[in-house]
Automatic annotation (TrEMBL), chain A:
UniProt name for this protein: Phosphate transport system permease protein
GO function term, MF aspect, one: phosphate transmembrane transporter activity
Subcellular location: Cell membrane
Predominant localisation class: membrane
UniProt function note: Part of the binding-protein-dependent transport system for phosphate; probably responsible for the translocation of the substrate across the membrane.
Pfam name, any one: BPD_transp_1
Keyword vocabulary terms for this entry: Cell membrane, Membrane, Phosphate transport, Transmembrane, Transmembrane helix, Transport
Family annotation (PANTHER family): PHOSPHATE TRANSPORT SYSTEM PERMEASE PROTEIN PST (PTHR30425), PHOSPHATE TRANSPORT SYSTEM PERMEASE PROTEIN PSTC (PTHR30425:SF1)
TM ranges: 15-35, 70-96, 116-135, 147-171, 191-212, 260-281
Entry membrane topology: Multi-pass membrane protein
Keyword Transmembrane: yes
From TrEMBL, chain B:
Name of this protein: Phosphate-binding protein
Residues annotated as domain PBP: 21-257
Protein family (similarity comment): Belongs to the PstS family.
Keywords recorded for this protein, A-Z: Phosphate transport, Signal, Transport
CDD domains the UniProt entry points to: PBP2_phosphate_like_1
Length: 297, 273
């Protein structure tokens, strides 16, 4: 009997190990493929010219492969959308976890999560046909398809991620900490600001960074509403062309294994580097601010 | 080691069987330009209805890929929205392949503006100025005092390539132009923006946007066929050498005025006759 249980244990262990191993191996193969297809472009342009060149004309003759306008577009769209999404997402999470009555929370939480279920193409279309003309009328600008519109739509998409992960973090702050604070005479508000938020900061920052990763990698929305101009933006109402939008728009027409094709994969490498970097930060913060003892998350 | 070799041989063998079967009689493989794709699809469907013993597989992938597939022999028919380039001809001849072009339809690209825009006509030179970012305001070409929002297709699209050649005369589009990924997206953004100008294939023209005449000439089936409209091009199907058998039958079907060409019109392009 014991023997049988032990052998089952062993088999299960091996089974799960091989499943985990396979997914990691596949991820590494994809990464290897990305580098294999992207690196040949650096035989044509130098890394410096690629990363800091001002003009992206991959099909002209001679071609220009400079992606600095695309990088700046991606970063500014992500930064602006974070500025909108982080306060909204975290505050909603605090409200849901601490302040809302049980009934309200039960209605609001699924609604926020429903936002995450909206397909990005729907959000993009909404931004294109409703928000763009609206922005154009209100601000009297040349086009509503711009950085601001893209940031708004991306904020819509990252709020549910930020909100529900933050809420989980806040919710899992041990009751003991909260009760201790209240017992010492702190008000509810003081408890939230001084005890609950610091105790859940690791979870909240992971939520924020994951939300930002989502915004920097999102393709459909920026393809539809960012405007697509390969210029360094002059204001938040300038049309821009983030990295994923360029890949999505051009991959279908780029001749297989041409310079243009390799350049698009090289953009993929840059994008990969960004999200990888974001995740490293998230990991670092999660470790650094991990609460010990009762409050560990 | 030996076992591995065996496996490798099997895999290679299987791969060869598949490649060969793709080119055997009764089956036609069509690849290439996404612009020509709707035509190929419509025509192939009708052809297969009339010739049920023939199976046609169609995929997109861009003009460059279509021509490359002809050179490599991985397709019977390669679609292209442009003519073959010298570099490609050289490559083909080196490999002993003689690509044969068949013009199967015409496409004309029409500049469009918002319905409320009073401008009805532009010259080619004005269009060039607008797309190079030299003309920034509608009042410069006789319109209202409003900044022009320039909408273009992304630079790798075949439609853009024609625009670059015929309107920009190989100059580059100005980097502040809004690049849209499809004809449909151009229509939507022009329809929603009173200051916008864009360009679309004739098949996408609808009553949401206002077509402009270029130098007094309206873009239509007639002006494309008689060569008067300046921004038009031919669409091609390339075969590997002079076509024989089923491929020849298929190409003849595409060119037939009563058969294939009917579907060219149906898919929004200008038929040959």
């Amino acid at each position: 009997m014991t023997k049988k249980r032990q052998s089952t244990e062993k088999i299960m262990k091996r089974f799960f190990f091989s499943v985990a191993g396979a997914s990691i191996a596949i991820l590494f193969l994809i990464m290897a493929f990305l580098f294999m297809e992207g690196l040949p472009i650096f035989k044509v342009v130098s890394v410096g010219d690629f990363l800091f060149g001002h003009y992206w004309y991959p099909t002209s003759d001679p071609a220009d492969f400079g992606i600095i306008p695309l990088i700046i577009a991606s970063l500014s769209v992500t930064a602006l959308s974070s500025m909108i999404a982080i306060p909204l997402g975290v505050m909603t999470a605090v409200y849901l976890a601490e302040l809302a009555s049980k009934r309200v929370a039960e209605i609001v939480k699924p609604m926020v999560e429903l936002l995450a279920a909206l397909p990005s193409v729907v959000i993009g279309f909404f931004g294109m046909v409703i928000i763009a003309p609206f922005l154009q009328n209100v601000f009297d600008i040349a086009t509503g398809l711009n950085l601001f519109n893209a940031a708004l739509m991306l904020a819509f998409m990252s709020i549910p991620t930020i909100c529900s992960l933050s809420e989980d973090a806040i919710y899992s702050v041990p009751t003991g900490l909260k009760e201790g604070s209240l017992a010492l005479g702190a008000t509810h508000w003081e408890t939230i600001v001084r005890i609950i938020l610091p105790a859940s900061v690791s979870g909240i920052s992971t939520a924020v960074i994951l939300g930002m990763s989502r915004a920097v990698g999102e393709t459909m929305v920026v393809l539809m509403v960012a405007g697509g101009a390969g210029m360094i933006p002059e204001s938040i109402f300038s049309p821009v062309r983030p990295l994923p939008a360029s890949i999505a728009a051009e991959m279908a027409e780029a001749p297989f294994r041409s310079d243009h094709y390799h350049a698009l994969f090289a953009i993929g490498i840059v994008l990969f580097a960004f999200t990888f970097f974001f995740n490293l930060i998230a990991d670092h913060i999660a470790h650094k601010y991990r609460q010990v003892g009762e409050a560990s998350l | 080691m030996k076992k591995q070799n065996g496996l490798l041989t099997t895999v290679l063998g299987l791969a060869m069987v598949f490649t060969v079967s793709a080119a055997t009689a009764g089956d036609i493989v069509v690849k290439g330009s996404t612009t020509v794709l709707p035509i190929a699809q419509e025509v192939a469907e009708a052809y297969m209805k009339e010739n049920p013993e023939t199976k046609i597989t169609i995929s997109g992938g861009g003009s460059g890929n279509g021509i490359k597939a002809i050179i490599d022999g991985t397709t019977d028919v390669g679609n292209a929205s442009r003519f073959i380039k010298d570099k490609e001809v050289k490559l083909a001849v080196e490999k002993g392949v003689y690509p044969v072009p068949f013009g199967v339809a015409y496409d004309c690209i029409i500049p469009v503006v918002h319905m409320s825009n009073p401008i009805a006509d532009v010259t080619l030179a004005q269009l060039k100025g607008i797309y190079q970012g030299r003309i920034r305001n509608w009042k410069d070409i006789g319109g209202p005092d409003k900044e022009i929002t320039v909408i273009s297709r992304d630079t790798s699209s075949g439609t853009y390539e024609v625009w670059e050649e015929k309107v920009l005369e190989k100059e580059r589009v100005y980097p502040g132009a809004l690049l849209q990924a499809s004809n449909g997206a151009v229509v939507t953004s022009v329809a929603k923006n009173p200051n916008a100008v864009g360009y679309i294939g004739i098949g996408y023209l609808n009553d949401q946007v206002k077509p402009l005449t270029v130098g007094g000439i309206e873009g239509s089936k007639e002006t494309t066929l008689n060569g008067k409209f300046p921004v038009s091009r031919a669409l091609y199907m390339f075969t590997r050498g002079w076509p024989t058998g089923d491929v020849a039958k298929f190409i003849n079907y595409v060119m037939h005025p009563e058969k294939g060409q009917k579907f060219v019109e149906k898919s929004g392009y200008v038929p040959l006759y």
